[in-house]
Amino acid sequence: MNITNSIITAYLNNLYSSINPQLKELRSFAEDKKVPIILKSTEGLLLNLLKIKKPARVLEVGAAIGYSACCFADVCGCHVVTIESDADSYEAAKANVTNLGYEDNVKVLYGDARIVLAEMPSGLGEDDLFDAVFIDAAKSHYKAFWDLAVPLCKQDALIICDNVLMKGMTASDEYDTKKRYKTSIRKMREFIKYSTGLDYANTCILPVGDGISLSVIDKQKINVI
Q1: What is the reported pTM?
Q2: How deeply is 178 buried, as exposed, middle or buried, from its count of CB atoms within 10 A (0-12, 13-18, 19+)?
Q3: 3-class SS of residue 18
């Protein structure tokens, strides 16, 4: 199910265009094989945000086959560190990054992001911190990903979380027709309440793609104990 009606979704998808033929081909492959990558409307918003933000370093949680990381590197020449927990997807992401020529910009790490992020050095220098974070992995772990990513962010970093409306289920239980996703729904609702209630984060939720949260981080407001 789409969070907007099918007519609007089809209209917006018809407006989509990719200026990079290799990335267009990778998107077509992913859609044909039903590999989960960012939706077209989501891609359009993210790439324009990155053009505005002009990040030097981007952290991504959830590489899949490397499509979005390559898009980020392509649009603004940034360095991307992306994490993938599925072994097959990790290998595919590394291959795609190399085949598309982004190996100097994109580093793919393997493992559970909660472990990988926790093992990243806590005393990173300013040049090693991230200007933007994109979270698009296991929905029930968004809060953990967020809490581990924030210390790795620069002042005024942008944190973007994908699929936060979960095909409408976050907004209403009626969309979970077979009652299969109760835990994920509960955890996503908890995450949205958490991220929108933080003093150090200015957060909004947008009905783009499958729902996106955008947060600007003011690290000066984070209490250090």
Answers
A1: 0.94
A2: exposed
A3: coil
Tell me if residue 37 falls in helix, strand or coil: coil
Rounded alpha-carbon distances, angstroms, from residue 105 to 80, 98, 133, 189: 6, 10, 15, 34
pLDDT tens per residue, range 41-95: 999 999 999 999 999 999 999 999 999 999 999 999 999 999 999 999 999 999 9
What Å distances lie between residue 79 and 19, 42, 106, 154, CA to CA? 20, 20, 6, 15
Q: Which residue has the tokens 């793919």?
A: 108
43, 71 contact by CB (below 8 A): yes
Q: Tens digit of pLDDT for each residue in 87-98?
A: 999 999 999 999
Q: What is the DSSP string of 94-124?
A: HHHHHHTT-TTTEEEEES-HHHHHHHS-TT-
